[in-house]
Structure formats: structure tokens, C-alpha cells
UniProtKB/TrEMBL annotation:
It comes from Vibrio ruber (strain DSM 16370 / JCM 11486 / BCRC 17186 / CECT 7878 / LMG 23124 / VR1). Pfam families: DUF4276. The lineage of its organism: Bacteria, Pseudomonadati, Pseudomonadota, Gammaproteobacteria, Vibrionales. This is DUF4276 domain-containing protein. InterPro entries: DUF4276 (IPR025455).
């Protein structure tokens, strides 16, 4: 099976590049994948049938057109997986919105919509052992307070446990992005698929493994 995976940005691409072999096996043995990053999440266009603005490369803005393009090329060995942070959206309503985009596609094809709840950092917080290997000095008491996949400011909770100075620095936006890049590059190296406690991560794993 070949997986076409659409993600919001660079950090998701980095993390999934490490996690995919753990989920579906080594690349090409026999499964393959391509991960497409975007410039943030953006918003769904008011009219999904219109040509997207080429200057707006956010995932949701481009998504209707990309789905229509995939529908034009039938491939029974391909599944399109769209991964989004849920943030504070209602999961059922958001999923319905996304699935309705398939009504604008001329031919049915395999497409799945998956969420990281609340955001990608929930997946890291689902594996405390991986976090402890990433940072042996990580604050266990903070990790113990976290309720898995809760809407609580997930990346802030991880920062509080890992490097709380990021939260109070005047250059916060730059430091946060640097920290998120570091997490995406290093934490997935230690993550174990089976033992991860994040329900949304396990849902993503089940989605992919259902095709192999």
C-alpha cells in the first residue's frame, strides 16, 4: 500500500518520517509513503469547488482541490490520509465537514481523516518512557498531571515539563517553534507504537495498519 499523507507543517512531517517505519514497517518492504507539508492549518474555503488561491498554501484551504486531484487518478494501492490537529474543534462536526469534501470528487477513492487531540504533542505525552529518554530531567510531576488527549494547552504542558523558560521568554514565538522542531526530531526516535497511551495516536496507527 502507498500512503499519501497530508499534514499541517514541518514538525508533523519530521515526526511522521520517523514514526512511519514503526507503524507500517521499513519503507518499500512493501509499503511506501509520501508526506506533504503545508504552511499551517488555515481554513476551509467557503466554496470547495473553486480553484484555491495559489498564495494560500495552508492545508485546509488547499484540501478540496487536492482531494479532487487525487480522485482523478484511480489507484487501488493508494490511500490518502489527512492528519490535522483538532485544537478546540468538535471532532464529530469537523470530521463531517472534512468528509463532505469527498462529495465534490468525481470518483470515489480511499481517503481518511485523522486528528491529533488536542495537537501533535499529545502523541509525545502518550509515551512517558520516550520523554524520559529524550530528557532524563523532565518533570515527572507535570507529566502525571496531564490527562491524555485533553484540551488543556498540550504543547504548553509539554514545555512546562521539559523547558518551562520557553513559556515566559520575550522571544517566545521563535523559541516555541525551535522547541517544537526539537521535539519532532528527537522524541519520536524513542517512541514505542504499542505502548503509547494517546487514543488519537492509536487511532492513527489503527487507520494505517488496517491497510497493510
Amino acid at each position: 500500500m502507498h500512503f499519501e499523507i497530508l499534514v499541517e507543517g514541518k514538525t508533523e512531517l519530521t515526526a511522521l518520517s520517523i514514526l512511519m517505519p514503526k507503524i507500517v514497517g521499513a519503507y518499500g518492504e512493501p509499503h511506501t509513503w509520501k508526506i506533504h507539508k503545508h504552511r499551517g492549518v488555515g481554513q476551509l474555503p467557503a466554496d470547495p469547488q473553486l480553484r484555491p488561491n495559489a498564495r494560500d498554501m495552508t492545508l485546509l484551504h488547499q484540501l478540496p482541490a487536492k482531494l479532487r486531484a487525487y480522485a482523478k487518478i484511480i489507484d487501488e494501492q493508494r490511500v490518502v490520509v489527512v492528519l490535522l490537529d483538532l485544537d478546540d474543534k468538535n471532532s464529530a462536526e469537523f470530521l463531517q465537514q472534512l468528509e463532505s469534501l469527498l462529495n465534490y470528487c468525481q470518483t470515489p477513492f480511499e481517503a481518511r481523516f485523522q486528528f491529533a487531540i488536542e495537537e501533535l504533542e499529545a502523541w509525545y505525552l502518550g509515551d512517558v518512557a520516550a520523554l524520559q529518554k529524550f530528557n532524563p530531567k523532565i518533570k515527572s510531576q507535570v507529566l502525571e498531571q496531564y490527562q491524555q488527549d485533553s484540551i488543556c494547552g498540550t504543547w504548553e504542558k509539554l514545555a512546562e515539563a521539559d523547558e518551562p523558560t520557553v513559556l515566559n521568554n520575550k522571544k517566545r514565538s521563535t523559541l516555541v517553534m525551535d522547541k517544537k522542531k526539537e521535539w519532532a526530531k528527537k522524541i519520536p526516535l524513542y517512541m514505542e507504537v504499542i505502548d503509547n497511551k494517546s487514543p488519537s495516536f492509536q487511532d492513527f496507527v489503527r487507520c494505517l495498519q488496517s491497510y497493510i
